[in-house]
Amino acid sequence: MDMKTTVQQRKKSWLCIFPGCKEPVKTHYNCYSHVWDAHLRHLAASPIYGGEKGQVYKKLTHRLEAKKQCELYMTEVNNYTDIEQQRSIARARIGNPQLSLLINSLDSEITNTVSNEVINTVINQNNLVTFPLQDLINSSLNKSLSLPSQSTLYQNSSNPLSFQEQSSPVIHTYECGSNEIEDNQLKSVLQHDDFIRIIQINENLKRLHVAGEILAENGFLQRSDARVKEHIEPLKGCLDKILKLTGKSFNYTGKEEKNLGFIAQEVQEKLQENEDEKRKVIGTFAIEEESFHFSMGPAIITFSLAVLLSTLSGLVIFILPKLPGVWFYCWGITCALWFSTFQNKNELKYTMQKRKLILYWNKENTLFTYVLLFIGLLTVGMSIVMGKSIIILCLVSLCILFILGTLAFWFNTKYKLSFNIIISVLVLFFLGVVVIIGVSFLIQPDYTCSINDNRSGYSLTINLNEKIPKQVISQLPWNCWSSSFEFSDKLPQGIYSVTKGSNTAPYIEGIVRTNFPTFTTNVYIKCVDVTRFYCGAITFKTCSSRTTEDDCIRNGCDWFSETGVCQ
After folding, report:
1. Mean pLDDT value of segment 374-396
2. Does domain 458-566 have CATH number 2.60.120.10?
3. HSE-up of 391 (CA within 13 Å, CB side)?
4. Distance from C-alpha of 7 to C-alpha of 28, rounded to nearest angstrom
5. H-helix or E-strand spanning residue 168
6. Whose CA is closest to 460, among 526, 509, 514?
7. Rounded CA separation 319/314 (Å)
8. Which of 359, 526, 547, 563 is most buried, most CB within 10 Å of its CB?
9. Letter string b/e over residues 354-370, b meaning 16 or more CB atoms within 10 A of that residue's CB
10. 558 in helix, strand or coil?
11. Cα–Cα distance between 374 and 368 in angstroms, integer?
């Protein structure tokens, strides 16, 4: 096995093939660390290695021996083919390397003479009994010898489970068989996974290995043996905090599979002092963390709305020709919907391939929707409330919204304030702004319309064939983007109104060439076809061209009988 470390080998292409291990592929260094820390480190605590506690891989000063042992359980794989299939092939190819490792480890430790009745030979430093690795594996798969006691273990009083011992003088490999399971099935399991083994170190000492772990030694569970422990005291109150946790059922976003477990934030909150960095020595855990990304909702919904608003965006100019603020808002919403759809395009691919809709609604979707609705409210307010007061209202509203958002984030982080409370406060604030804008629209506090600075009404006497003086309306507010006159009665022929935008005050002028009955009309000015202001009343009359007393008086003029003139 070529174990050279290069820059190119930092990619994840190394796999642990220790019996029973299911770890995914790792980098070269991480695979060394995993095999040593998770599987082989316990050997350093055995009498074979002097009984000293093993160090984790990253703290080893001399790693050469550890690397040699780890390499027996490592193989380089191709990430583009089935990983588990490669793992099984590698295990079958190398057999049981730990078996050879333990036999070689006994070379410097076993010096006593073992009874001829058990192994019929003497093991010492000069005469070591060794067995080829493949012979041991083949014998474990093809032979079945009885235990010294030739006993049979019964499970549930119905299914006898027999153990038989192989006659190897040093290593005993056991096969377990059930009356209901065929022998070839059991042998296949042992061949690929090497799940259970018993190793005889000397005449009186046997060691049980299960899934690569030393589980028992000479009748005692090694990790629970009181002979290797001291200061043994009963635990008190150790479950008090654990009992505070509550199991939850949940679905991961975009998945239908039901899961059971604990919520990480709840565990972190209630068991902060129990976080242990040492747990990382057994490998890297895949933890799903909530990440922020722009989303206005499920992709299928945002896509449908984007298509609909794209159509409306082209028609809004004709539907609301005098509300440019609404145009820009509609176009902005359309762009945001398309961007959100692009961000979640994988959901659309899944829907098309699996014919299943992905529907959900998260907190960020609610917040994005709220922000867009709030901006839309301010846009409408700036279109229907004339004057500078709406600017002040928008600035104050945005400042308050920013303060509320900051406080909500702080309370949620420090005191875990419920999201429902936060959104309820924001909705109440939204409704408050709606009420203020509605009242402002009705009273229009910033603009008062008048004609020639007169709102009470007046009479305008017109001389035929003479241009009347301009009847000027007070200056329009800044956001009256499109203005027009409105009259309760039609103006006399020859008189017209002029509006040139918010920078020029509207006015009325013209030339009358024929008499008309005296009448009064109310004058209104409309902004963006939504807001209408009353400017005053004008009474139009012609007097100088009237020749009879009755006609003069009937039209509200003064008749001078001495001169026969109507004024």
Report:
1. 92
2. no
3. 6
4. 10
5. none
6. 509
7. 10
8. 526
9. eeeebeeeeeebebbeb
10. coil
11. 10
| Residue in the structure block whose two tokens are 């939504």 | 530
Four-point Cα dihedral 143, 148, 149, 155, nearest 10:
-40
Q: What whole-number distance in Å separates Cα of residue 371 and Cα of residue 368?
A: 5
With contact defined as beta carbons under 8 Å apart, do 97 and 185 qualify?
no
Q: Give whole-number Cα distances, 360 to 253, 307, 338, in Å.
A: 8, 20, 18
Give kind and range of the element (H or E) at residue 461: strand 458-461
Residue 68's pLDDT is 87
Helix axes 83-94, 183-193, angle to 10 degrees: 90
| pLDDT score for 313 | 86
Q: Which residue has the tokens 């990480």?
A: 264
Cα(292)–Cα(407) distance, integer angstroms: 19
Separation in Å, CA 462 to CA 459, 499, 522: 10, 22, 18
User: SS3 for 411?
Assistant: helix
- The string of pLDDT tens digits covering residues 549-564 is 888 888 888 888 888 8
Place of tokens 């076993």: 110
**Domain residue extents for the chain:** 7-94, 105-223, 299-443, 458-566
Length of the chain: 567
Q: Got the DSSP string for 239-265?
A: TTTGGG---EEEE-TT---EEEE--HH
Could you give phi then psi for residue 464, rounded to 5 degrees?
A: -60, 145
Q: Which residue has the tokens 């007061």?
A: 389
Which three-class secondary structure state does DSSP give residue 425? helix
Rounded (5°) CA angle 9-10-13: 65
> Tens digit of pLDDT for each residue in 341-359?
998 888 888 888 888 888 8
- Longest CA–CA span in the chain (Å) reads 165
Cα 444 → chain centroid: 45
The pairing of beta strand 507-511 with beta strand 495-498: antiparallel
Residue pair 272/315 in contact (Cβ under 8 Å)? The answer is no
- The count of other CB atoms within 10 Å of the CB of residue 346 is 11
pLDDT recorded at residue 218: 55
The CA distance from 300 to 357, in Å, is: 8
d(CA 191, CA 175): 11
Query: Burial level of 149, CB count in 10 A (0-12/13-18/19+)?
Result: exposed
Mean pLDDT, the chain, rounded, equals 75
CB 477 within 8 A of CB 502: yes
Q: What is the pTM of this model?
A: 0.48
State the number of CA atoms in the 13 A half-sphere of 479 facing the CB.
Answer: 22
Using alpha carbons, select from 134, 62, 67 the residue that is nearest to residue 97: 134
Pairwise CA distance, residues 214 & 219, whole Å: 12
As given in the structure block, the two tokens for residue 248 are 């939850």
